[in-house]
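Email to the structure team, subject: Squalene synthase HpnC model.

Hi all, the expression group asked for a predicted structure before they design truncation constructs. Nothing fancy, just the tokens so they can compare against earlier work. One-line instruction: predict Squalene synthase HpnC, return tokens.
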Amino acid sequence: MSVEHYENFPVASWLCPPALRPPITAIYWFARRADDLADEGDAPAAQRLADLADYRAELQKAARGEAPGPRWAGVFTPLARQIRTHALPVALLDDLLQAFVRDVPNPRYADRPALLDYCRQSANPVGRLLLHLHGIRDPEALAQSDAICSALQLINFWQDLSVDLPRGRCYLTDEDLARHGIDTAPLPATDTPATRALVADLCAWARAMMLSGAPLVHRLPGRAGWELRGVVQGGLRILEKIDAMQHCSLTRRPTLGPADLALMTWRSLWMRRQTAPAQP
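Reply from the structure team: attached below.
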């Protein structure tokens, strides 16, 4: 399954227990279609918001057990089935939708708490839905899941600065920019000593958050725990790649290759019951 349009969703891979592949796949396609409505094509903002409002109405119909309309029946017919079968928390699905609504006007974020509030809707519901499917609902596990998901979202932001900024998408908070003496208008377009220091600061923030949630890998059973190890190591490896390019991610986008995947696999095998993953 492609994750080209919705990078932060852990896909129903071969590591996923077969019984959970249908609900995870249904949630994925629900999120991906909403992402397309918010971000793909050249529709004006008003049309995007109207489409997302209609999409939300279809979610509420699915939650009530009503038949979906024809436009997105391919999304909501299987999703409604999984909502019934697994008692999926509809409020978490609605949070994902609201994050896409927030994306449409390309808002700015005043500070880190404001950005984390966006992550609370855009990323954290994914982890909480997966924990729900595995029957894990205690507060410590939920907090660790939120830390991993928010960290992944932040890492994606810092990885994609060279793509997002030219499109008018800015997840660099006004407070962080001011702290590093960077003007907010116009937005930074080139790497400078100040922007490199900013990106280094932001990467350190994301890394600490990821490591705080990493012990969750030991709570998830079987294949799911191993998949989560790969997710955690993938995020940490992207941060290492940004470090290696001296934090010049305003003009270059770091990517992972086969050698990185081999390293991530090795590190996943040796993650111990401690905050920081072991290094090879």
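The two ends are 30 Å apart (CA to CA). Residues 83 and 239 are 36 Å apart (CA to CA). Ping us if the truncation boundaries need rechecking.
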